[in-house]
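tl;dr need the bound structure. longer version: we got a ligand (calcium ion) that a collaborator sent over and nobodys looked at where it sits. i said id run it. heres the input, straight from their email, havent touched it
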Amino acid sequence: MGQRPTLFLTVIVCATCIHIFSATQYAPPYTCTTTTTLCKPGIENEGTNPVANRPSHASRPGKRGPVGPKGDKGDPSKPDPGYNSAITEMQRNMGIMESEMKKMNNTLQKLQQENEEFREMLHNVSQVQVTASTERPTSCKDYFNAHAPRGQSNAEGLAILFPFQEDDDLTTIEVNCILKESRSWMVIQRRINGSLSFNRQWEGYAEGFGNPNGEFWIGLRNLHKLTSSANYRLRIDLENWEGESRYAVYEKFAVKSEKNNFELEVSAYTGNAGDGMATHNGMGFTTSDRDNDETSSNCASSYPGGWWFRSCYGGGANLNGLHPKSEKDFHWLPWMDPETLKFSEMKIEQVN
Ligand SMILES: [Ca+2]
């Protein structure tokens, strides 16, 4: 009986030790991997260990786990293969972009060239249109081509012409155009009834005056521009106070520049009025303030009105002289001498 109390005490002590050891070994937080049943501290609990899942221990921090081995730093002289492939991809993309830029440049150049060609074509078309346009006739022939019914051989109309556009000069002149026996004439002078004074000085005759539909002088500057840019013939129609008519045609008609005093060139007469202009051929124009005649006086002062006077109008004509019948200065002497005229009309036609 003396050994039984000792054995019992020993058992009690060992049981206590086992309990204490167990409590220490499995104190939370305990972690487990899903593949181990033995939980270890420092790893988050996600396993199935029933001890680790105890709610009373879930918020307690674990111990820091072991630090792993350091990684390989790599060789700086050997770039990352991923980096190399990115660079290659960028270079490939840049190549594509350069190629696209070249294509765009080529397209742009083509467009610019086409634009230039288109502008040139437009310019040519507009030139053709200007020449053929009914809005901008260059001559009375152009005007009648647009306005006279086909087949009509006689007509008359007031026209605004653009005769100087070959020099890109869009100066217009307003004239009376006459279609007579299928020929187109531009009126440059007309006397009807003496209602308009032709007693003008140099600037007036140089610039022109009157109404194209009535009494009219086209102006020496216009005459020079017209007849120096193309060949013209001149036709003069006359009427006397008895109602008779005569005409004179000169195949060559031109007026020189103002610097040359608007010298007259006229020749190759045909008609039934007689050659009233022959004596005036080669003369400069004379007005009361500009004496270019061959007399010691000024013919335009003696016979008011400007003309290509030589020995005044002896043997010739004075179509810008005083008109009223009583003044007796409005003459075409080869036909009527000493009687004066009632009507005169000077007109020109371009010779092709
Ligand atoms: Ca003189």
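gonna send this back to them w/ a short note. Confidence is low (pLDDT under 50) at residues 1-58, 126-132.
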